Structures are given as structure tokens and as C-alpha cells.
Amino acid sequence: MKRDLLSLRDWTKQELLDCLSLAAELKAAGPMGSYSKALAGRSYALIFHKNSLRTRVSFEVGISQLGGSSMYLTDQDFKLGERESVADTAKVLSRYVDGILIRTYSHNLVEELGENASVPVVNMLTDFCHPCQILADAMTIQEHFKDLSATPICYLGDGNNVVHSWLNFASRVPITFIIGTTQSTLPDMELVEYTKKQGVSDVRVINDPVEAVRDAKILYTDVWASMGEKEKADERRKLLMPYQINSHILSKAASGAKVMHCLPAERGWEITSEVLDGPQSIVLDQAENRLHAQKAILLMLDRWFRS
Ligand code: CP
Ligand code: NVA
Fold it and tell me: How far is the CA of 263 from the centre of ligand 1 (A)?
């Protein structure tokens, strides 16, 4: 059966937890392990309309480690929705490849692609959410603290696509997720309310950064102006400086707290170099786990597709 990963809400709690277990198994097995031919003969189209280091490289390497092949496609190759309709592109690509992966601006465009493709579609980041990132992050938290539900997470900064994917995760898997931000940089509050209503997780929005980080075992941040909205950087810097992750704010979190950032970082703004490079930072584990988590995502989608 064709399934997609456009948002973490596309998958059940059990499917998300199974994906995290499979990711840990793949990491332990290594690139030459028993999964090295699991996607032999499969091809994937990777469409990028925004820059990427981690996502592109980890997907390309991951597909290759599973025995499959991938192709990198940009606006230079075809302008999605301009040269021909999104639906036509989805249907044609589905006759060639075993999965379509896309990073773009509009989340609606990715949904249209998903509705019209007969092969699995994976969201590699839209303006609205970044599901693959949060699966890798949840895996990283499990590695460091074992129990996700007993590890309060505080996100400080702009209420962006990364926050939205944490909220989607929280509507499925029980976590404590505190968002520390200003009234002008809130995430989608309908999504916050929806997530709270599911009654699965403890989700709060707190304006005071010191109060927000109290008891947090994970302090998480991301750039204050995401791709596609860099013109807002100056205004956000004025607003969000009190939410910077630095050694002072870190001292207010639970003792032994770890620091996460999906990267790329704008050092000296949302996070100081002292903390990013310091002993409590686990950002490189996070980056590495993109590889393992995404291999698990592709294997789960492939299993469903073949069954
Ligand atoms: N974290 C992340 O998605 O990084 P890239 O933008 O480099 O892919
Ligand atoms: N919120 C950031 C994440 C980058 C991985 C952006 O969308 O630019």
C-alpha cells in the first residue's frame, strides 16, 4: 500500500516508535550490515527547491547504503507546477521511480504531489514542517536519555517548521514540549491547540525564557529566520535575543541538560559558539542520526508499498 511521510501526523504512534527502533537497529548494523541490499533496484527522485547539506547528503548516502540509487533534481531541471501540472509530474515520476522526496516552500504543493503520486512521497522540509528532522531528533534523545516521555524538551526561539513537526510528534507520542518565544514569533497556534486537545503530551507556550527552560533536559533551538524569510532576520534578532541559548540560560535548565540544534546554526544569534561546541551539545549526534532515521523511513515506506 502506498503511504507517504508528509507530516508526522500521517503515521500512528506505533509506526513512529517502530521507525525509531528500526533506525537504532540500522545504526547498530552499520552500512555493510544485513540491510545493505534492502532497497536494491529501487530509485528515488530527490527534488530540492531550497539549499541543503544534511538532508541531501544523508538521504543520498542512506539510499546508497541500502543498495538503491537516487537522483538530485532542482528548478534547473524542471519547474514543478510551471512546465506542466504538479499532478502530471507526480504521475510521470511514479512510472520511473520508487519514491519521490521533496524539499520546497509550499506545504500544499507537497500534499498535491502526495495525492497524485502512486509511489511514496517524503517531505524533506516545507515552510510548514520538517518531519525527517524530528524523527532523527527523537532518536538522538532516546540515545542520551532512554525515555522520551521522561525527558522534558524546551524549544527556545522562532515558532517555525521545526516546532510544528515537534507539535505533530507530540500529538502522537507522549512528551513534554515547552515553547519559549515572544508573542510575535509564535508557532501556528491552531496547531498548538490541536496538539493540546489530543491529550497525548504536555505542551505549553511560555514567554519568559528562564521559566520556559526550568526542568528542561533538552534545550533546542533553530535559526530565527528560516529559508525563504531571511529578510525578517534583523527584526527577529531584536525580538529574540533574550531567547538565545547561552551558558547563562543553560545554567537555568535541569542539571545535565543537553543542547540540540537542527543546524545550520547562525552562531552568536540563536546560540553561542561556547554552548554549540561545549560538552552539553549533542548537535553532531543529531546530524548523524538523520542518516539512520531516514534509512528507517524509506524502509518502512517500501515495506508498506510492497505489501
Ligand atoms: N537540518 C537540516 O535539514 O539541514 P540542511 O538544511 O543542511 O539539510
Ligand atoms: N527552520 C529552518 C530549518 C533548516 C534545516 C529553515 O527552514 O530554514
Answer: 6
